From TrEMBL:
This is Integrator complex subunit 10. Belongs to the Integrator subunit 10 family. It is found in: Nucleus. The lineage of its organism: Eukaryota, Metazoa, Ecdysozoa, Arthropoda, Chelicerata. GO terms for cellular component: integrator complex. Keywords: Nucleus. One of its GO terms (biological process) is snRNA processing. InterPro entries: Int_cplx_su10. Signal peptide: none annotated. It comes from Amblyomma triste (Neotropical tick). It holds the Pfam family INT10.
């Protein structure tokens, strides 16, 4: 024994000396030391370390429990219990972490609870305290009633006082993805206002996270924010690399669960496939929006009765708003992802689409288009919806998702217009107006609802603020579509020619039938819209069809003679030959009736020899000789 050693240190050194050669001798020395010095932390801690080194889970857990009861203020003990807490939160475990977790699980349940609670209470960092309390609640769900509401309040206050600039912060993540779902799932009663606040915060967080342009970095941040130094947490909520579909499922699940706690009758809608809601579902939403609470009985003239009626009305509106906004945001996401995948991170598809209205007068035998906007039928019903189809450049499954999501978003948006106060508040928080897919939706919803003049106003704002040629081309295509729909053929042709002159050269393989078959309607719709692929071949086809229709209006419906327009129309029939042969024949009849025809540019634009001889019945070259003199 060295002179500088204490008796305790000597006993410990002797036990250590025989650890590898004679474990029983080591235990004898430690038993002697514990008997002589029962209140010495160093000896108790050394006994724990020797048991841990030998992998003896039972002895180590016993020593740990005894130390925690006798020496709750020792720093070395707290270092060890923090290591245990990190091991309990770790996603992957090494040998040491596995031992620590097994040892902790070997402790009596009451000791496990007391240790975790003490660790959390001693933690000075608010975020770490909340993570440890979450660990406690997951380990002991029966304690959620005792600690859950307080933990929610702590997280809300921490986020407020940390002055976070975005909902994407560690406090919000813990609140809406981990703590609040656990509290709601176990049926803990929360104040109504607090439940609404949680729903609002949840929608903000998930929406911002899904749409974040730097998702990969955020995944790492959100995951590391839960790790707390030595370990991670396999959380149920967002972050940690969850797929977008899973994130939407979590959002819907949270709002539906909170809605059930609030006794919402619409909460079940969030469990349906959100883009497949039936007409009966929409009727329920609209009925609840427009319903008014029953008036108080005449004998009850108290202010409280009136307040209750107002609160009931506000609760109805909140129910409609939160259910509808979740469905809208999900539909808007699917719509934007299929319209322009480049708006979203990690997109593998580069096919972009644009909503265009086909010329309303598509064959020579049809009546000329009526440009007067028709919103309501004579019998007071809503006008027949237009036929909506999608380019075959888009896979059939994606085409179905696009059309269903677009139509669902339109119906949601019309409902949200009754709730502008709530909508404005959420829109400001999630920066809705800054999303390019939202601006695209606003324009294309106006086109779909036959409001071309309103769409034109928004389109001009976009074209004034962009230098991207592809964006300008898309805007000009939709401007041409709108101009033609309300009879401005000259303006439509001008925009189409601008597009034709600036189209990219690349093109995808064309389909024999360019568009998917639209969903069946009870009667033939007056209007036909298509999500066309932004591709040279398909855009040229649309431009030519629309130009032909515009010139056809001018040539066949005007009383004055216009050989230049007639000649332009003749050469354009070559583009889709022999589809345009009936029109070509009709134009020849016009020439015959005129008695003369002059169009000196004809041979400059001759690209098809086939249409010079039509079924052997008429030699068009002979007509040229007769009428182009």
């Amino acid at each position: 024994m060295k002179e500088s050693e204490t008796d305790e240190e000597y006993l410990i050194s002797m036990a250590r000396g025989y650890q590898k050669t004679d474990p029983y001798f080591t235990k004898s020395w430690m038993l002697t030391a514990k008997t002589l010095f029962p209140e010495n932390f160093g000896i108790q801690y050394e006994a724990y370390c020797l048991a841990a080194d030998s992998g003896n889970i039972k002895e180590a857990s016993s020593y740990l429990e005894e130390m925690f009861r006798k020496f709750p203020s020792e720093h070395r003990l707290w270092d060890e219990v923090y290591k245990i807490a990190n091991a309990l939160r770790a996603d992957t475990l090494d040998a040491e972490a596995t031992f620590l977790r097994d040892m902790f699980n070997h402790l009596p349940t009451a000791s496990q609870h007391d240790i975790l609670l003490s660790i959390a209470e001693h933690c000075m960092d608010t975020a770490e305290h909340c993570r440890l309390m979450l660990l406690l609640l997951r380990k002991f769900p029966e304690k959620v009633v005792e600690h859950g509401v307080k933990l929610i309040d702590t997280l809300q206050m921490a986020e407020k006082h940390s002055h976070c600039q975005t909902p994407l912060n560690q406090f919000r993540k813990l609140l809406v993805c981990d703590v609040a779902p656990l509290v709601l799932k176990l049926g803990v009663e929360l104040p109504v206002k607090q439940t609404y606040r949680l729903i609002h915060k949840c929608i903000e967080f998930y929406t911002m996270f899904i749409y974040a342009p730097n998702r990969n970095k955020l995944d790492l941040f959100m995951k590391s924010s839960l790790e707390g130094g030595g370990g991670g947490s396999s959380t149920e909520g967002g972050g940690g690399g969850a797929s977008e579909a899973e994130l939407w499922r979590q959002l819907c699940s949270f709002v539906a669960c909170a809605g059930r706690r609030l006794r919402w009758e619409l909460s079940e809608l969030l469990q349906e496939p959100l883009s497949l809601l039936q007409e009966a579902h929409w009727q329920r939403i609209r009925a609840l929006l427009l319903a008014r609470p029953a008036a108080p009985v005449p004998t009850d003239l108290s202010a409280g009765a009136a307040v209750d009626a107002e609160e009931l009305l506000a609760a109805q509106h909140k129910q409609v708003f939160y259910c509808t906004i979740v469905i809208f945001l999900h539909s808007l996401y699917n719509y934007g992802k299929h319209i322009n995948p480049s708006w979203f991170p990690g997109a593998t598809n580069d096919i972009q689409c644009i909503l265009l209205e086909g010329p309303r007068w598509m064959n020579p035998g049809a009546e000329p288009p009526k440009h007067k906007k028709r919103k309501v039928e004579a019998e007071g019903k809503e006008a027949e919806p237009p036929a909506l189809t999608v380019s075959k450049c888009v896979p059939a499954e994606s085409a179905v998702v696009l059309t269903q999501s677009f139509l669902t978003a339109i119906r949601c948006w019309s409902i949200l217009q009754y709730l502008k106060k709530e909508l404005a508040r959420l829109s400001q928080h999630i920066h809705l107006e800054e999303w390019p897919w939202f601006q695209s939706f606003l324009i294309e919803s106006l086109i779909y609802q036959d409001q071309p003049k309103e769409a034109v106003a928004k389109l001009y704002k976009i074209i004034e603020s962009t230098s991207d040629q592809a964006t300008k081309n898309k805007v000009n295509l939709q401007l041409a579509s709108c101009f033609h729909s309300f009879g401005e053929s000259s303006a439509a042709c001008s925009k189409l020619l601008d597009v034709v002159c600036s189209l990219p050269e690349t093109s995808v393989a064309a389909s024999a039938t360019p568009y998917h078959t639209p969903e069946g309607l009870h009667r033939k719709p007056e209007r036909k819209l298509v999500f066309a692929c932004y591709d040279r071949a398909e855009v040229l086809c649309f431009c030519m069809k629309t130009l032909i229709t515009c010139f056809k209006d001018k040539v066949l419906m005007q009383f004055s003679r216009d050989d230049l327009a007639l000649g332009h129309l003749i050469v354009m029939t070559q583009y889709d030959w022999p589809e345009e042969e009936p029109l070509f024949r009709k134009l020849l009849e016009v020439i015959k009736k005129q008695g003369s025809f002059c169009y000196g540019l004809f041979f400059n634009y001759l690209i098809s020899v086939l249409f010079l001889r039509v079924d052997g019945e008429l030699n068009f070259a002979a007509c040229l000789e007769a009428y182009m003199l």
